[in-house]
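Run log, item B.
One chain of 515 residues. Sequence copied directly from the ordering sheet:
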Amino acid sequence: MKQPLLSRVRAWVSTFVQDNRPSRVVHMASRATAAACLGATVLHAGPPAARARVSHDSIVAASLDSIASRGVMTALHWSNLGDVSAPLNQLYAARAWSPLWSTGGRLTPAARAMVSSLARVAERGLDPLDYDSARLGTLSRASSLDVNERAEFDMTLSVATLRVVRGLYFGRVAPDVAVPTLHIARDSVDLALVVEQFVTSPSPDQVLDAAEPPFAQYRALKRTLGVYRERGVTDDFARARASQIAITMERWRWLPRDTTAPAIIVNIPAYSLDAFAEDRDSAAVHMGVVVGRTDLHQTPLLADSVRYIEFAPYWIVPLSIAKAELLPMARRDPHILTVNNYEVVSSRGKVLVPSAKTLRMVTAGTAFIRQLPGGLNSLGRVKFMFPNAFDVYLHDSPVRADFARARRDQSHGCIRVGDPTGLATWLLRDQTDWNAERIATAMNGYAPTRVALTHPVPVYLFYATVVAQKDGGVQFHDDVYGYDASLAALIRAGGTARVATADGLVAAEPVAPAY
């Protein structure tokens, strides 16, 4: 036989007092309250409307706690809640699991405003389907909701808001999930704290605007997206272009919003380089580049920092290139190396006479081939170094005709720059002893000169197939490496292995488009 209700409540209270774990106390308190509210003989203080509101919200609280504990909501497009479990618990536990978006069975004005904003996230390059916009709209328009529907609505809206905020701050897919070489450090964001702003805000669009990247390119792409989406209602080509713009916007979300210095962005499919002005928004230097071929020599996507410049550099020929291109010719005639300003150097730094023996040393790795500084050097007269595992960098080139090509994927992976003097001048702009005359002298020398930068300069080997122009138009570029197609597939599948939290990245199942 069951205990009288009053005795059961006393037993609950006794348990709280003995259990000094705060999280368990909160959970048990919410469940005890719900159990008490389900009883028919409990006496409540206050007017009937207030009693009904407290009772209703307490039962919803127990249901919300139960959903979060299970970690799954089958009604959601991405049903597993693992990617948002930490901020969800932070949001609800702070208020003893009472609903965020309704009170006494009525949706708040902020809830209705947020549902409306989620229905329009396509304007921001996101897919409303990923945020259960249709289901939220149906529930919000219902004349009345029972307890289970209220809990479902509350949790669905909280999950959708967390996911859309994270998607705008960080992107729907982590950069190193999309491209394993691309590791971009980002400041952490307290997602729960951001979402709390929506709970009381009648203007959620303003908060969403603040979550988006602050870059001029992103803003221009967002405006252009609206034009192509409108045309895409009846035009398949415009619809495809809108998708291409949305993919490019996704990549802009990956970039850090605050950097220690204006950055360099090399856009591979656009064959361009921009060095940004102090405002971090407009380009101070713009030039064409030549990038890696689409076969076995693709330029990797990287985030790094330029640390030094080397004028009149040697070119240390990578062994793969030496084996494939130089050694076959040199075996027929070793003197061809000397004629083309190459020399064989032992691993101890001694210059060797080209011969069958020394060429075998190159193959064995006990010697290497380098090209002497000067106008014929394959690196040209300067290189810009950001040491990395792929041994790629920015450099000049003696083959100027390549810059006139429409398609400039011609290199072995390094990036040849169209205006090396302009880039050197920009990088050394705060080192007044390196004026234009000294830069020109160093570039035209015949011995290497290394100059360390005062501050490392961020450089991103980036991939954007849509570029907004100053005149308000856009340029569309070919997906030369196929990265747009692979990223689109990841987004559709929710294919990611990591999620963002206030403390960094943690492992998660690939169940939702998450950072």
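Observations after the first pass:
- Confidence is low (pLDDT under 50) at residues 1-53, 495-515.
- The chain is about 40% helix and 15% strand.
Flagged for discussion on Thursday.
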